[in-house]
Design goal:
About 70% of the residues lie in helices and about 0% in strands. By secondary structure, the protein is mainly alpha-helical. It is globular, with a radius of gyration of 28 Å.
């Protein structure tokens, strides 16, 4: 088994129409195994980044609105992804089918780009072998990667478009660089290089994992165009230094002037230290490798409960995993001259895990982190199978069997993504010691009206983690909704004490106090919520009601208007503003807001009643009850 560097040599290709038919078949397979996710609900981080994000609710394609969607969303450092969510909303609102469809199309596009990158790379590296099966390497690499069950978290989980789309632009940038290097016409060279640069910028603007792209472009040049020439590397030491400086500048842009301080601060919300994370990630990386090799749905989990490593020998597998990683790196160095393609694949896998599996205070494990690294890991496996297994038709058969099994398992795993209760039940089953899984299961049950079962899971979450602010908050909301205001307020107050920077907890505590008639205390909490998040439409609406009850209609109208500026489709705020204007005698303006509320929420009785009163001959104002917006999980 040998892949040697040599002059440019193009592999024999199938006729273009055969290649097109193969791709249409592969795309159809991907669509079929993901089609059952189209109606899957918003879950987990989808809620804060999309459902509860007023800035993506585009109603017109204006520069200012697009800018707000890009820079004011929860992840302003990922403007490209934010813009796509905003465009989704502009076209079809919160209909989840459109969001899922875009994710699936991005996944198919990634597969096509992977195919083209592998095909181009093989032609550059001069793959010399008499085997007639080599032309299948790009196709099987892309197919096996696309149907791999491990990719479901990047495709079926809507918000992870950030991950899949970053990978798409990343691979496109590298592919365009290869075309730039192979082009003979100067004009074409500039076109390819410009495209490479723009794609790289788009990748970085989608997710920070793209920060490794300049390094891998440099490595790609050295491996496949310079044939690992040491003298070339020495001559371009300045280029490598520039890449390191560029990486540092990107880190400075995202992390500020004191990145070490920011890294340390990121651990303030974690249950582990920097040292523990670094040690644990050694085992996590090998766990990712095991999932690549055997991705049975029973092993996949949205919220893995991964035990910590406290030293190299506690547990002993930490040292073993370190030895395995070091061995893989040494193998890549050893293979570099003999098999540069395989060596590059190994470096690609570990290098593209480096950002999320190192010092940053992120969650320990997420399967979507393998999306980009797994691309060339699959290539490595395909090349090994086609080169080692004889007769070669048997290797082709094994790859076909792996593709069929992967497609079946992906379809099965996607069944979990169709229902948030099923998904979180699966998490609880696989991570019985993780409080967050119980909290999120309870939240999903609450949305389905299963309050008793939800409360049982909240209590389980608090048993596992008594200082879990989110569970206290959610439990407080559900208790208050059931009329148990004192108990609910207790849990909401505990949530605020644990996490005073939670605008949601402050808002809902304010609503509960408002319902209880404690007006001054409610106003304090609602103002706190707006100090934390000035762009919180629900808090503006609730504070508006409180100010109206306090006898300050001008302040009330100001806050209702603020809520509507943030969310023009906010039916409750339209109703409340209409009531305030009606009480001041501005009947025509009030009528317009009641009509807007009914347009947005046709069955809204409060708006209909006030609108009928305005239309009546008496024109007597009605002192109705305003709507608060809170006590929602």
């Amino acid at each position: 088994m040998k892949i040697t560097a040599g002059p440019q040599h193009h592999l024999p290709d199938s006729r273009p129409q055969h290649e097109t038919l193969l791709w249409l078949a592969a795309a159809l397979v991907v669509i079929l195994i993901y089609i059952n996710t189209l109606a899957g609900p918003f879950i987990f981080d989808d809620v804060s980044n999309i459902w509860e994000n007023p800035h993506i609710r585009l109603t017109r394609l204006s520069f200012s609105d697009l800018t707000d969607a890009i820079v004011k969303s929860r992840a302003p450092n990922r403007p490209v992804a934010n813009m796509t969510f905003a465009l989704n909303y502009y076209i079809h609102g919160y209909n989840v089918v459109g969001y899922h469809l875009v994710n699936i199309l991005i996944h198919v596009a990634c597969g096509l780009l992977l195919y083209l990158l592998v095909k181009t790379t093989l032609s550059i590296s001069g793959l010399r072998t008499p085997s007639k099966y080599d032309k299948w390497v790009p196709f099987f690499t892309a197919l096996l990667w696309m149907v791999h069950p491990l990719q479901t978290q990047s495709v079926s989980y809507i918000v992870q478009r950030m991950n899949s789309m970053a990978a798409m632009f990343y691979v496109l940038s590298l592919l365009l660089y290869a075309n730039f290097r192979m082009a003979t016409e100067q004009k074409r060279k500039w076109i390819w290089l410009t495209g490479c640069t723009l794609s790289g910028i788009l990748a970085l603007g989608t997710k920070e994992i793209a920060a490794t792209l300049p390094f891998f472009i440099f490595l790609y040049e050295w491996f496949f165009f310079q044939k690992l020439n040491i003298n070339w590397l020495k001559r371009h030491a300045l280029t490598l230094t520039t890449i390191v400086i560029l990486f540092a500048l990107v880190a400075w842009f995202y992390m500020g002037a004191n990145p070490l301080q920011k890294i340390n601060m990121s651990y303030s919300i974690r249950d582990f230290t920097l040292g523990q994370r670094l040690l644990t990630e050694l085992r996590v990386v090998i766990f990712y490798v095991s999932l690549l090799l055997w991705p049975q749905p029973s092993r996949l989990n949205l919220d893995h409960d991964f035990s910590l490593s406290y030293s190299l020998f506690q547990p002993p597998t930490t040292a073993l995993c370190l030895a395995m990683i070091v061995a893989c790196i040494f193998l890549a160095i050893y293979l570099a001259k003999r098999n540069p393609l395989l060596s590059f694949c190994v470096i690609w896998f570990f290098g593209n895990l480096a950002i999320e599996s190192s010092a940053l205070g992120l969650e320990l494990v997420f399967e979507h982190r393998t999306y980009l690294p797994s691309m060339l890991a699959i290539l490595l496996a395909v090349v090994v199978v086609l080169r080692v297994i004889k007769p070669q038709w048997l290797g082709i058969g094994l790859l076909c069997a792996a593709a069929v099994l992967g497609a079946i398992w992906t379809f099965q795993r996607n069944q979990m993504w169709t229902d948030d209760v099923a998904l979180w039940r699966d998490c609880v089953k696989k991570s019985p010691g993780k409080a967050r899984s119980y909290n999120n299961l309870a939240l999903a049950l609450t949305r389905q009206g299963k309050f008793n079962e939800a409360m049982a899971n909240y209590f389980t979450a608090l048993t596992l983690k008594p200082d879990y602010a989110r569970a206290h908050y959610n439990l407080g909301v559900i208790l208050a909704k059931q009329g148990k205001l004192n108990e609910g307020i207790q849990h909401l107050q505990t949530a605020v004490q644990i996490d005073p920077n939670s605008a949601e907890a402050q808002n809902n505590l304010g609503v509960a106090l408002l319902i209880q008639g404690r007006l001054d205390a409610a106003i304090v909490q609602l103002k706190n919520a707006l100090q934390i998040n000035a762009d919180y439409p629900e808090a503006h609406n609730n504070l508006g009601k409180a100010m109206q009850l306090k006898g300050n209609p001008a302040a009330a109208i100001e806050h209702f208007n603020a809520a509507l500026r943030l969310d023009p489709d906010y039916a409750k705020a339209h109703t409340n503003l209409g009531i305030a204007l009606k009480q001041l005698g501005h009947l025509e303006a009030a009528k317009q807001h009641f009509e807007d509320a009914l347009r947005l929420h046709p069955g809204y009785p409060e708006s209909r009643r006030h609108l009928e009163e305005i239309s009546s001959t008496t024109r007597q104002p009605h002192q109705g009850s305003e709507d608060t917006d809170g006590l929602s999980n």
